Each structure stands twice: as structure tokens, then as C-alpha cells.
């Protein structure tokens, strides 16, 4: 087991000007489960493949433990790519399916058996070791594939969207199994996904990338409570955070018809280049329904109500004839606002509801740089 | 109770027009007639052409469809679409791979539950899964020839910028190609297309190929289909060696101080003999002008098959083309038609090729491709000539049809199942063809690779 260090590592594809991965600095602790997440083209898979040795490192370096692997060939990096291929050999026993790579590496027979048995124990496959893969269920076969990587005892596991070819149900099941298994093994793992829910539920820490640049790295809770910039705020969380750009009047932001008090440290952080405008984010669960005459109440016109049993969400908009509405600019390009409401008191389509951002639950960002200006928000939402 | 299932059997109905089925790719309304509303695993037998062997990541079935065979693989929608697009792209680039036919998405069962998407590809006629070859009377070097074919495929894919990510004998199909095999990419699921591959990507693919081939050999041994005396590790090493030799031949830099024209011509000729044309070449002179380095930049496979196609319109594989061209050259000498290649080709087609392949009775035409039949008749004539000189092509063809062909299996559509147990082939020893230089193909004709 080992730490992994990206030391200002860059990948610049020939013929392109902008690096696919730009000076990535990331320290991954020994035994940590780190998830690289971001939208398509953000550089997450490239970053993983740089570590695997599949992409060149054009500047900077990558270290596994105290070894610089920047110029080391993939097979000599002591790293295992998991799930790349898991076709099983039908005539070989489960034990042989798991251990054959060790046989190729000329590992001693008794040593192979020992490692295979240890892996089988972790994977709950002990009783199947001498049987053929045909006797196994789909999930068990997948565990055999995992076992192949485990018996090699690599320093680091790499997983590149390993669940992408599974249907939704199996994906949820398998992600729980992988996370649990990684914790039992304690092997440093780097995992790539485009799915922020997968990232939040699996990782010890998450690194969010966009356009080849690391946006933020932190625990799932950090990312949710204190997104470092507007991009991370919009990317992490489901349903997404409501984010808009609003005019600032003194200590208030003009949201629709409402004057919403901004918190102090946020106002103090505003600069001339923000041009008296601010980006305010508020999660759907940070809104309380209030009476129309409450200070800071925002009117929302209901478009759709989504009832999920335990929760209900209003998808609505701030009426466009409201003063200042023309200034509202949402990240997603529309003015949709999502509100979590009490499922026992659901409004109808076309109704207007008034909501207020709960005290201390504003995420305030600079409109010029997109950087966070306010302190972390603490909500009780389970991730 | 045996045979009793407590779950109701879904109705085996065809697409009824009420489901939001989405088909991308094929312009073929008959595709809607397949029973998309039931899981592929339970498709009725009368739809299926065969069941595949081995354990696959996905459910795969071969389906009869409008007089041809399609391979259907269940997977998730985005993956099916991705693989479809990639195979299409690879096909456009001229890569040897299966032809994608359609993606079927939006499937639901009788009660409206969603079913996986399906990637549909066309079955490659006369292609053989490597396992099918192990139930036939084997030449002792079959495995070597398969691995050599896979090495050529891997090099060709890498030259095009395709990183495979799961190279193995199972993920390729093989077609007889004169006395060699040609390999075709079947499973592109793990692959990626890049402008250029890095050294790491190529090496990783080679390493995967080695590991997977050894695993496949261990499995054949476990199934008692491969003799225990064969060392899987040596076979695994072979792909690495063959790949590296060919890669160096095709891309290596050579530096010369004199007689550059001669060396250049030699290099191009060597690549042609390997079956490649040089489309672009980098030439770099040292500052003092005393040395010149050459490095092929773009090479295209299919040197011989392109020439044969131009001359005769026959679209065949590379080694078959090499063999046929050789016969054509011999024909030109014999008929004193050396000055007019095109006219001679036309006559050769008329007088030699067509009568020979037409001599195969209709019942036997599913056994081998015409070009392969012609190749084998040439072999057979050589074999007969050892006993009786001056055997004509019609005589050779008649003898081949009578004595050799009946024992050959139908190979037009071998779909993963074993070819039926076969009587031993006639005592003709095809390995002897190695003695004839013109019939040799890569890698036996390779000269030592130039150093980079």
C-alpha cells in the first residue's frame, strides 16, 4: 500500500494548446478511497490514466509512495486497473481464474493458493474456489474479477467508471460492495466517475475537476457544505443547488421582489470587480415556506411538483415581472428554482409559494471570480 | 418440480408498435419483428442461429435475420451507442472489425419493465472463433498462426490510434487467409480512439494480450483441448515478439549515409512484402547533410488485396491476394502476356479463377470462401504434382472437390459452437507449403527489424 502524489502533473495532447490536465496537485493518503469526478471532458479519466501509465506526463511528476513513476511502464508501476476485463475462463476453477496472473509471474504455487484463499475469504467466495465459474451468479463472477486484482496485492487500485455497463439497480448494489471491500482491504484506490452521487456515497475524499483544472478536493461533507466555487456548488448535490446572480443593495441581495440579507463576511469579501453583483446559492432543503409578508420572502410560481413519498420538491420560477428579475442569471441558463417542501402540504401547479432562505444556509460567491465568500453551511442532510 | 417455473413465462411476441423502441443504425424495418420485449436470454429457439460458447460479460445471441446472421449483445444504452459509433468509426478508417448494424434501445417487457439496450452487429461470414479451431484436425502450428494474426491486428489497430483495452483471442474472430489467418476485432467495448497512442497505451495492450492469451491457453488445457506439452507462457511471449518486430518494421527509423535511393526502395519493398503500402514518409537530413533518416509515417495495410482488387475486382484478404497474384504472375509468364497486366488479369479470371471456384458443387459452397478454395486447389495441385507432373487446374479442382472438400466442415457461419467432430483430413500435409517461398507471409519473411 502506498500514497499517491500528483506533483503539478500535466497532460497536453499533441496539437492542442490547452492542457487536458493542468498542473494537477493532489496528495492521496495511504489506504484512502479518492474519487475523481467531473463532467465529460474535465480530465478525470486522463488523470487516472496518467497514474496508470497510459497517458504521458508532459510536465510535473507522479509518485507512488516514495517512487517517481513518471517514466515507468504501466506494468512496472505496481498498480492494478480493476474491471477492465473480466471474462472468466469456463474450464478453470474459480481459484485458477483468480490466481492465473500469479502463475504467469511465476509466484510459488503454495503462495498463490494462500493469496487466493485470503482474497476469497474477503470476497465470500471460499466455498466456490474449486468450482467452475458457471456455478456462480453474476455478482459472484464480478467478485472473481475483483479477486484477480486483489491477489496481485498492488499498491494502488484504479477504477475507471467501473459501473458504467451495469443497469441502475446493479450499479447501486455494486457501488456499496466496492466501497465496503475497499475499506476491508485498505488498499489506496483512485476511482473515476461522472456521477456525483456515486462520488458522494463512495469516496473518503472527492476531487472535482473541470476543464483540466482541479476545482476542489475534500470530504463529501466539505464538498456539500462548503463548495469552493460556483461550479462545485452546482455540480455536487441532487437535486442541484439553486444558484443565481443578483444585484446587491447595501447589505441585501435583490432576489425577485425580495431583499435578502447577505451575511457579513460575504459582503466584506465583495470587490470592485464584482460590480455590485453577487452569486447566491441555496439548496432546495435550505428553504422554508413562509407567509408572503415575511422579511426576505421570495415568491416562487409552481411549475411542477415531484412527490417522492418521504420528500416532495417544487420546481418553480421567480415570476419574471418581479423587479430585478431581469438581472437574475442562473447557472443552468433558466430561472428554475427547486424547493423541498413538506409532502403533506403540497401546492398545485400555478400556485405561488413564498419561501425564505434559512439563516446561515446561504452560499455566497463572487460574481467576478466565482469563488466562495461565505463560511461553510451546515445542514443535516444525509449524503 | 423439475422443469417447472413459478414465474410466468413472458409472451414471445414481436414488437407490437406500442413500445417506445428506438433503433439507431440499420435501415431495416424487419428488425422490429425480433422479440425485443423479452430478455435476450429467453429468445425462442426458432429465432436463434446458435448459442455462443464461453462466459461473456453480457448476454450474446446469434440470430437469423433476412437470410443472414446477426450477433445481438445486451448492454446498457450509452455503452451500446458508444461501441456502435466506435465500430463505425473504425470501419471508416479501414480497420478489420465487425460491422455494426444497429442499436436497439427503449426496450420494455410485457409488463412495462425496462430491458437492457442491444448492440447488433453483422456476423462476419467464414469467420471462426479461436475455440472452434481446436475441435478440428489441427495443424501443429495453428496456435502460432492465430497469435501472429492477432499481432498483425493489434499493430494495425494501434497504427490507426485505437487502444483496445482488452486484447484476447476471444475478442477477435479469425478468417482463413491462404495458409495464414486474418484477425478481426469483435469487441470494442473497452477501447478508445486517439489521434496517436502513447507508448504506455501500446505497452499496456501488449501486456494485456500476453496475459489474456496465456489465460486462454490455460483454459484450453483445463478443457483438455490443448496438449499439456504446450507452454502457454511461450505462446504469450510470442505475441509480444511478433508485435514488436512488426511495429519496428513499420515505424522504425533508419539512417543512411549513402545510396539513399536504394535503401529507400528496399524499405518500401520490404513493407510491401509484409502487405503494407507506405502512404507518407518522413525524411530528415542531419545538419551537415551527411546522413539521412527515413521513417514511415503513414502505412496502410492491404498492399496485395488492393492490387488484386484493381486488377480483377476480387475483394479478398491479404494473403489470399498474395497467393492469387502469384498465380496470376505465373499465368502471365506462361501465356506470354507480361506486357499487359490488366488484360492478363481478365483472362486469368476467366480461364483459371472462375472455372475453379465454379467447380465446387452448390452443396459445398458453405464450406470455404471462393478465394480460399482457389488457394487450396493450388496447394492440392502442388501436392498432386509430386506424383504426376503437369496437373492442370481443372484436374486439380476435380480431385480437390472429390477427395478433400467433402471432409471439410461448413465454415460460413460458425457461431461460437464447436464445429462437428470431423474425420481426419486427407493425408495431404499443408505444412509443406512453407517450402514455397511465395506462399509465405508475415512473419516468416521478416528480415531483422531496423533499430529505432
Number of helices of chain A: 9
Largest beta-sheet details of chain A: 6 strands, mixed
CATH class assignment of the largest domain in chain A: Alpha Beta
Q: Can you identify the CATH class of the largest domain in chain B? A: Mainly Alpha
The percent of residues in helical segments of chain B reads 25-40%
Multimeric status of the protein: heterodimer
Largest interface: which pair?
A-B, 32 and 41 residues
- Mean pLDDT across every amino acid position of chain B: 83
Alpha-beta content class of chain A: alpha+beta
Distance between the termini of chain B: 69 Å
The gyration radius over C-alpha positions of chain B equals: 24 Å
Can you tell me about this structure?
The complex is a heterodimer of chains A (383) and B (452). With 383 residues, chain A is an alpha+beta fold. Helices cover 24% and strands 30% of the residues of chain A. Chain A folds into 2 domains: 4-225, P-loop containing nucleotide triphosphate hydrolases (Rossmann fold); 230-366, OB fold (Dihydrolipoamide Acetyltransferase, E2P), CATH 2.40.50. Chain A has 9 helices and 21 strands. In chain A, helix 2 crosses helix 3 (109-122), helix 2 packs parallel to helix 4 (138-151) and helix 3 crosses helix 4. By secondary structure, chain B is an alpha+beta fold. Chain B has 4 domains: 22-122, Phosphorylase Kinase, domain 1; 127-251, Transferase(Phosphotransferase) domain 1 (Transferase(Phosphotransferase), domain 1), CATH 1.10.510.10; 254-301, no CATH class; 304-421, no CATH class. The A-B interface holds A 13-15, 52-56, 73-75, 84-92, 96, 100-101, 103-104, 133-134, 141, 164-167 and B 53-58, 75-76, 78-79, 116, 163, 165-166, 168, 170, 189-190, 195-196, 198-201, 203-204, 207-208, 210-212, 214-216, 218-220, 222-223, 233, 236.
